[in-house]
């Protein structure tokens, strides 16, 4: 019966196609299971942003990037708390620190550490020339108490009057707190809150992140990796992304990927999330290739 055998053939072809898809998916899942998860991936984090080359324009861009990450945290339903904030005269941002807490916050945000470059005509530019400015993002995983033990005797805690903008309470009480970790010389300060207790908590939070990061850097130095996607110190001085406003283009240099629609990207929602997902997949692929080459050796 030719008709029946034709139906069986089509059915078998569909079955084969479906099984091949399933095999491909399972291979992908198995590959991901081979990648060791880093202990820091489940951590919360401390994010530092600092204006780089480009004067007021760099500070304006720093403010925009900081706001983008604040919106991204809201998009991912993470908790975003400002620990330090030093604005510039015309609405820009010299330096700021925030803590970001939530499900897999560090796992995603770790790819944002590095130098971000902007190319555009600044608001202050009379001739219409395009300027290039930079800002730096540092992402420090926040340790749990188990992962980092600090001896209180190693801490030198000072209080002083807060300085700068902040209304009437600034300069009236010794609310600003400065903590020095004597063995390493690492310093942390906070004057964001009116309460000295809250400032001490926040300064301590920043200090823990800095100390934990120094410990992790020491460990990763031993593993000295040649990956394109670098996390930590190596990545901090590396230009990772360019925001070209005249061409409405964002380019991530680590994976040579460009996307368009700046306004949408800077909202810190789907477009930024997609870019981070792509970076995460590329980093997973690099980890997998490392494991395979180690096993071959």
Brief summary:
With 297 residues, the chain is an alpha+beta fold. Helices cover 41% and strands 26% of the residues.
Categorize the overall geometry.
globular
Order of helices and strands: HEHEEHEEEEEHHEEEHH
Structural class: alpha+beta
**Number of helical elements:** 7
Unreliable spans: 166-171
As a percent range, the share of helical residues equals 40-55%
Query: Looking across the biggest beta sheet, what order are the strands in?
Result: 2-3-1-5-4-9-10-11
Radius of gyration: 24 Å
Strand content: 25-35%
- Mean pLDDT rating: 84
Main pleated-sheet profile: 8 strands, mixed
> Count of DSSP E strands?
11
Instruction: Please give the alpha-carbon distance between the first and last residues.
Output: 57 Å
Task: Please provide a written account of the structure.
By secondary structure, this protein is of the alpha+beta class. 41% of the residues lie in helices and 26% in strands. The chain contains seven helices and eleven strands. It has helices spanning 2-34, 55-75, 105-109, 196-223, 233-236, 262-265, 270-296, and strands at residues 44-51, 79-87, 93-101, 114-120, 131-142, 155-160, 176-181, 186-190, 239-244, 249-252, 257-260. The protein has an eight-stranded mixed β-sheet. The chain has a three-stranded antiparallel β-sheet with strand order 6-7-8. The longest helix is centred in the N-terminal third of the chain and has 33 residues, at 2-34. The termini are far apart. The model is unreliable at 166-171 (pLDDT under 50).
């Amino acid at each position: 019966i030719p008709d029946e055998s034709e139906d069986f053939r089509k059915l078998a072809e569909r079955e084969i196609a479906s099984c091949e898809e399933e095999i491909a998916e399972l291979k992908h899942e198995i590959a991901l299971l081979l990648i060791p998860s880093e202990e820091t991936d489940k951590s919360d984090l401390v994010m530092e942003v600092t204006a780089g080359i480009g004067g007021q324009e760099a500070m304006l861009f720093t403010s925009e990037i900081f706001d983008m990450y604040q919106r991204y945290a809201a998009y991912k339903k993470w908790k975003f708390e400002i620990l330090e904030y030093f604005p510039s005269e015309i609405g820009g941002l010299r330096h700021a620190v925030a803590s970001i807490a939530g499900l897999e916050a560090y796992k995603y945000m770790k790819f944002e550490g590095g130098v971000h470059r902007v190319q555009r005509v600044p608001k202050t530019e009379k001739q219409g020339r395009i300027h290039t400015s930079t800002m730096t993002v540092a992402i420090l995983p926040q340790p749990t108490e188990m992962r980092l033990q600090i001896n209180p005797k190693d801490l030198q805690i000072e209080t002083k009057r807060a300085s700068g903008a902040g209304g009437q309470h600034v300069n009236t009480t010794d609310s600003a707190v400065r903590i020095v970790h004597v063995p390493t010389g690492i310093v942390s300060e906070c004057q964001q809150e009116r309460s000295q207790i809250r400032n001490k908590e926040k300064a301590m939070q920043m200090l823990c992140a800095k100390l934990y990061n120094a410990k992790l850097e020491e460990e990763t130095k031993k593993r000295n990796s040649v990956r394109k996607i670098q996390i930590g110190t190596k990545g901090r001085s590396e230009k990772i992304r360019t925001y070209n406003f005249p061409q409405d283009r964002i380019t991530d240099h680590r994976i040579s990927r460009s996307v368009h629609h700046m306004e949408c990207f800077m909202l810190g929602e789907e477009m930024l999330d997609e870019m981070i997902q792509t970076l995460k997949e590329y980093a997973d692929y690099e980890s997998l290739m490392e494991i395979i080459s180690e096993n071959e050796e």
